From TrEMBL:
Residues 9-153 form the N-acetyltransferase domain. One of its GO terms (molecular function) is acyltransferase activity, transferring groups other than amino-acyl groups. This is Ribonuclease BN (tRNA processing enzyme). It comes from the Bacteria.
Length: 422
């Protein structure tokens, strides 16, 4: 079990980590007054202007990170370090995520840091979270220093994975997710049942705040949770406890199923709101809608199993986010997928275990396949989902190890309830 906790009660452990960091770095860092810092860690990173965090793995301190006030509304990230034997568990990523959150809560507008060129993994991680290279903000005698800055004020879109598994997983929920921005929420698919409501609650997303829903196709692991949303929404409308209207988008088959099932299982006092305040909207191939104040284009993925749509969302003039549903990319959709800033793509299993899980028989792909595709189409960030759950506790590490052999961009293997800033 990995936890990120306050580091002030683990000062002696933090000292050992920092000493290990400098030993591993093998640089003369006298100019940083390291002995002075080690003797006054609590003062240098004192709250509320500073913060010191540690990572616990099975109650052992295996990593740390901190920030202190650099000047005015700018803080500086310092001392990100994870023990070598613990680096395969993405602890550095967890530490960076948490220290950024703490800096925002402390009211800082910018976060700066410095690193050195040989630390390729750290640089990759910083860029993954939005840090940009800048001019030197202080004098450092080393000639391979890289200075970076993150704008903490920018409100980014967030992707929250409610589920990451394929149709018959038992150790995680079926693949579905929420895109949110400026307190608006867009639900994509509902998974296989009422567990959707549990996942929303655990993700701290109120179902009442979801006003836009898209259902990719009719398979049970994608559409069944939507029936529970329809039930809750129409019941609340009937009780005058619901504000506003809701739009559910899908192709003709999906919308017909939602309409028919709702009228079979719900009472008339609830179904009377369908078509009035709960709108079932049929969308066609290439049709555009405004969602989260972004232009969204829906497209037919040309599935050979069941009619299915994906979508691409224009994030700004240059960047787009594309979701290919739960089947492999089809070349006829190249215009939507190519050069996406973000691509959400299924990966049923590792390529090395294709003989075990037989993804191709199910018209699914592997981690290797998805990563080769993303590299070929010049995708900047790749999110893999709709996976097997037999490696649930090691999936992030195993999938990353295979995928990064074929893909040079930012690879995300999220767990259920994990959020990613877009």
């Amino acid at each position: 079990m990995i936890e990120i906790v306050n580091g002030y009660t683990y000062i002696e452990d933090v000292k050992k980590l920092i000493e290990a960091y400098y030993k591993e770095l093998d640089r003369n860092l006298d100019f940083q007054n390291i002995d002075e810092e080690l003797n006054h860690l609590q003062t240098k990173y004192q709250e509320p202007q500073g913060k010191l965090l540690v990572a616990l793995m099975n109650q052992k301190v295996v990593g740390c990170v901190a920030f202190h006030q650099f000047k005015d509304e700018i803080c500086e990230m310092k001392r990100l370090y994870v023990l070598p034997e613990s680096r395969s568990y993405h602890i550095g990523q967890l530490l960076v995520e948490e220290i950024i959150k703490e800096a925002k809560q402390a009211g800082y507008k910018e976060m700066v840091l410095d690193t050195i060129e040989p630390l390729k993994s750290a640089i990759h991680l910083y860029k993954k979270y939005g840090f940009k290279e800048i001019e030197a903000y202080y004098e450092n005698p080393m000639d391979d220093v890289i200075y970076m800055k993150l704008d903490l004020r920018r409100e980014k879109m967030k992707l929250t994975m409610l589920g990451t598994g394929h149709a018959v997983v038992t150790k995680c929920y079926n693949t579905c997710f929420v895109l949110s921005e400026n307190h608006e929420y867009f639900l994509v698919d509902g998974g296989g049942g009422s567990t959707l409501l549990t996942q929303l609650e655990r993700a701290h997303i109120k179902w009442q705040d979801i006003k836009t829903i898209f259902v990719t196709h009719k398979h049970l692991d994608h559409i069944t949770g939507i029936f529970w949303m329809v039930r809750l929404i129409t019941q609340a409308m009937n009780q005058n406890k619901y504000e506003g209207e809701v739009y559910i988008y899908g192709h003709d088959e999906v919308i017909q199923i939602i309409h028919d099932v709702a009228h079979m299982v719900l009472q008339e006092k609830e179904t009377r709101f369908i078509g009035d305040r709960l709108h079932l909207v049929v969308i066609g191939d290439g049709e555009k809608k405004k969602i989260l104040n972004h232009e969204v284009t829906f497209f037919d993925i040309h599935s050979t199993k069941a009619k299915q749509y994906g979508f691409t969302m224009q994030l700004n003039d240059q960047e787009k986010l594309t979701c290919c549903g739960d089947e492999p990319y089809n070349e006829c959709n190249q215009e939507y997928v190519k050069e996406s800033q973000w691509l959400l793509h299924e990966a049923f299993c590792l390529y090395s275990e294709a003989d075990i899980y037989k993804p191709y028989e199910k018209h699914h792909s592997t981690v290797k396949d998805a990563c080769l595709l993303a590299e070929q189409l010049k995708v900047k960030n790749l999110v893999l989902y709709h996976s097997e759950d037999q490696h649930i506790h090691e999936r992030k590490r195993l999938y990353s190890e295979e995928g990064l052999q074929y893909y040079q961009g930012n690879l995300f293997i999220p767990d259920d309830l994990e959020s990613i800033e877009i």
